Amino acid sequence: LRDEAAKRVSSSCCWCTNSWRRWKLARMNRQLDKMEKAAFELDDEVQKQVGDTDSKRRVVFAFVVFSTQLMRNEVLEEYRFSTYPWLRHMMKSCHLFQGYEIQVVPAFDPSNLYWENLDYPKWKRRLRQAITAFATLIVLFVCALLITTAQSSRSQESLAPEYGVWVFDNTAVGSCFNLCSLELFTDAACTDTSRINTIKNIFDVRADGVMNADASWFAGSCKDGGASWASSACTSAGASDWIGVELESPMAVKCMRMAQLPQKPSQALRAYGCKSAPAAGDRGAWDPQLECMGMQEVYPQLFDDETGNSTALRSGRLSVVRDTTCPLDDESSFLSLEVAQEAKVIAVDDATDPTVSCFCKQQLKLRPSFLSPEQLANPVGASPEVEVCRPWAVAVAASTFRLVVGITVVVVLNFLLKALFRYFTEKEMHISQTGKAKSQFLKLFFAQFINTGLIILLVHANIEALPMPEALAQLVSIGEGRFHEPNVEWFEAVGSSIAVTSALQIVTTTMPDVLRSLFMRFCVFRWYARNRVTQDALNSVYVLPDWDLA
Length: 550
Description:
Number of helices: 14
Oligomer: single chain
Shape: elongated
Structural class: alpha+beta
Order of helices and strands: HHHHHEEEEEEEHEEEEHHHHHHHH
Largest sheet: 6 strands, antiparallel
Helix content: 40-55%
């Protein structure tokens, strides 16, 4: 082969063809060297075993063929405990083979065995599996870093905004605020270490300082005869039913707890974040729905006080999360331009403000072309609606681009991991195709479960107390997202990403084999079938590869 290839190279007159053939000859020589080395090693192994008698050779497996299926099942029943190492020592003497304990299991199908791996030592196989498992963990950690890098920028698009004034409005009909305790926290778990104690003023529609602005009223103390506050709605129907808390500095309130007296307790309330408190003379006509950022409505659970020192009703933990609901079916409930403009003025970030976002979505439904690229690119003469929605449109386009990048990274990594894990399982020296496929499936399951779902979920989640070192959490950007729980906005931003990634993963995994089986006979067969005369050569062309179950 070497001489024939060298003659072909020397007979070529074209410099390009000659260079190509020299490179091809060098590659063939390297392959031949590897084949010769492997052949010599096999020959040496065979020569060593030729001189050994059967009594000196190590027994690997013994295959027993029975006359009937019933006899086979009876033997397996007798040796049913032989598969457990701790029970094998208690085998009956009649079950021993020349005084040795044996393990009896159903035989593999001959076509399912890797016969060349049967005599491979078991401890070496276990060692290889441990090494590949450790390598798999390292690969998954590197993939997690890559995916979190692609996804973390999307998770930080809109964190909990900070406001210097927080207003709590009773939205339940037939009730009124009658508070004796109110606690505010900067984390979603209402932990004691995050309680807000820097209170500047507590006010309602009537006056400032309706309660002492100190930590006592905001520490959950609510005993009989203690201080309490009742809104004007408790004595005058239709009056304002809210209480405002002004902080020393703007802070993000993520959780709250309160205690109410049992007289007409509120069963629904809504929090509002405001940039500034209204003047004392303007509070009668002041409406937090128009002047502040609304949060989701929450429903106190009205627990009895567990200490027995108070008749108050505890609300339990109440999450303070932005209200992102946006009606798109009823046009009569669509937001007006004035409301969107006011929301843009008071918003911390007008590109991610839920009111502005809802207004733009509603306008897109009414007029799908009002945010055309021409109008966005030319600010001169643009309509007021376009001016309000321009930052939102740019943010949505950037978010969509990052979504595509994140999905592409996940799909490409899963494809590379599939090839890498196939190489790992080849090195584990399995004795059966079933064991090899099981090992590969297990690795791919954990890899795709972590990459496709778990990492994306944790990156976008806002977790205050992570059960892992803080440095590691910051390295992989886990728990620093903006979602405390799955809501409508979560399904739009995160759930859609997971769904699209899963769909693309299914398509990219199965469709290549389908397309290859459909079009190979028309394209590849005719091209590669020429000059193929032996059975092995024809099989390499016409026999399709095994279906990749992974």
